[in-house]
Write a structure and sequence with these properties.
Layout: H1 3-15, H2 24-28, H3 32-39, H4 55-87, H5 99-119, H6 125-142, H7 147-158, H8 163-178, H9 186-194, H10 197-202, H11 214-219, H12 226-235, H13 245-255, E1 258-260, E2 273-275, E3 285-287, E4 290-292, H14 297-309, H15 311-325, H16 332-344, H17 349-358, H18 361-364, H19 373-384, H20 391-400, H21 425-439, H22 445-452, H23 459-467, H24 471-479, H25 482-485
Antiparallel strand pairs: 1-2, 3-4
Helix pairs in contact: 4-5, 4-8, 6-8, 6-19, 6-20, 9-14, 12-13, 15-16, 16-17, 21-24, 23-24
Length: about 475
């Protein structure tokens, strides 16, 4: 393979994939664009995903554990009080001194017993989260190129939820709603994510009810606008695209009734999506000048379909995709071509991705875009040929670098610009040194340079690695180089 072909292959692996790994340059071959497109034809399935619980089952599992924890705590508290009453002496009037102190100590003892009893019931949410993280990470490590996996990561961040709020469902949400629709039509992806219980929980739609709904009247509670605002501002149209506060309120009314089955009410279907008409604001609603007459969940689906087809959505999606993969300030011509493809194909996301990698504009710029922490970490691990990870250590490293897995600080997800991440590069050195120390006996920096990267590494980096005082130092220098940090 010629040097120019190797350079194009390495660029494809960095800019659009998960980074070079042993054998990946050969997998790309002499036609990097064709190899990227070919990867989109493969099923986006996760090995061993069948062993993981569905989001609803995971939710029920955690809810059941919480219920047992509460019950155990109450039992322990009641038992402690019985024991204290049985042990209490019969006191005369002159023996009351110190009684208040004794009662306080008894109360503390009962509370401690309740706490210990509750903690004896393990929390299943954390193990479920770690199993999901392991499967997702190992899919990225095993991919020949990783373009399709990068698209999953992009859409998961675009339509983010937070494990800080809904840990049990965070991984299953990505599998069920995002991964299953990443290479399909945007409207199907939109319907899947907005109707998923994890999103409804995350954006507080479970507590939203129309003022004139049965529940709203009986409970004197009202509307929550979160989901309507985030769908318009972040998920579809983008900010400042013509919608008004009245549109947000009307759309929020449309989305009332979208909720999940309470696990205590239905042990078999708890945690699954349901439409509750008692929460739904009755009557027609007008959103973006169009009147929606439907009386059930179809009213919300109709609005979502129209938002998916809106021209502003095409531009918003194209801009975010190009910014993520190509440059903080993506070429306008590239964005325009991707938006046109989105409109022409009715939101076919696979065709939009193909339009991106087929455009010369996506390849012209030098590799200046700073990788997000998650991209850098998985690229570093891929270069060594490691395909299995300890999810505790891996997710801990992600958190240290400021991009905790499925835990974005806000509904807009993690940012995709250098300014947001450049101050954290110093922490990457700690991670690089720690990882280099762990793998010193199994990874050779010269092999990574020559075989994995096809020698497509800057001369000064090769020189620094060659002069390093130890293999650990050489590996850390390599991992911290611009060849690993940027794409």
């Amino acid at each position: 393979m010629s040097n120019s072909a190797k350079a194009d292959s390495v660029l494809a692996l960095h800019r659009f994939g998960m980074g070079p790994r042993p054998g990946s340059i050969a997998a790309v071959g002499t036609d990097p664009r064709g190899a990227l497109i070919a990867e989109l034809d493969r099923p986006l399935v996760l090995t061993a995903a069948a062993a993981l619980p569905s989001s609803a089952k995971a939710y029920r599992t955690v809810a059941d554990a919480n219920a047992r924890r509460t019950a155990r705590a109450k039992q322990a508290q009641q038992q402690a009080k019985k024991q204290q009453m049985a042990a209490a002496p019969v006191m005369s009037e002159d023996q009351t001194q110190g009684q208040a102190q004794g009662q306080s100590a008894d109360k503390d003892a009962a509370e401690m017993a309740a706490k210990q009893a509750a903690e004896a019931v393990p929390d299943p949410g954390r193990p479920i989260y770690l199993q999901e993280a392991k499967l997702r990470t190992e899919a990225a490590l095993a991919a020949d190129i990783g373009f399709a996996e990068r698209l999953v990561w992009f859409w998961s961040n675009h339509f983010c939820v937070s494990a800080n709020k809904i840990q049990s469902m965070s991984g299953a949400y990505e599998r069920e709603a995002v991964r299953a629709n990443t290479l399909g039509r945007f409207v199907d992806l939109l319907l899947a994510v907005e109707g998923h219980p994890a999103m409804l929980f995350y954006l507080d739609n479970l507590a939203s009810m129309g003022a004139n709904s049965t529940a709203g009247i009986n409970r004197s509670r009202g509307l929550n606008e979160n989901i309507a605002r985030e769908i318009m501002e972040l998920h579809t149209l983008g900010v400042r695209t013509g919608y008004t506060q009245d549109d947000v309120i009307s759309f929020a009314n449309v989305m009332t009734g979208w909720t999940l089955v309470p696990p205590g009410d239905n042990p078999e279907h708890g945690g699954a999506f349901t439409f509750n008409p008692r929460l739904h604001e009755p009557g027609a609603q007008t959103v973006l000048g169009k009147r929606y007459e439907q009386e059930d969940a179809e009213q919300g689906r109709a609005v979502l379909r129209d938002l998916a087809a809106h021209p502003a959505t095409a531009t918003h999606v194209a801009t975010k995709l190009a910014r993520h993969f190509v440059a903080d300030e993506p070429p306008p011509a590239l964005v325009a071509q991707m938006a046109k493809t989105f409109r022409d194909t009715e939101g076919d996301l696979k065709q939009v991705a193909i339009a991106m990698v087929s455009s010369d504009e996506a390849w012209r710029g030098p590799p200046l875009k700073l990788k997000r922490p998650g991209e850098w970490v998985v690229g570093m691990v891929r270069a060594t040929g490691i395909t299995s990870v300890d999810p505790v250590r891996y997710t801990g490293g992600q958190e240290l670098l400021g991009e905790a897995l499925w835990r974005p600080p806000a509904p807009k997800g993690y940012p995709d610009d250098e300014a947001s991440w450049i101050d954290g590069v110093g922490r990457r050195l700690d991670v690089a040194n720690y990882f280099a120390e762990r793998i010193t006996g199994m990874a050779d920096p010269q092999v990574i340079i020559e075989d994995v990267f096809g020698s497509e590494i800057a001369p000064e980096v090769k020189q620094a690695v060659g002069r390093a005082e130890s293999r650990q130092q050489a590996l850390a220098l390599l991992f911290m180089s611009a060849d690993f940090q940027r794409r």
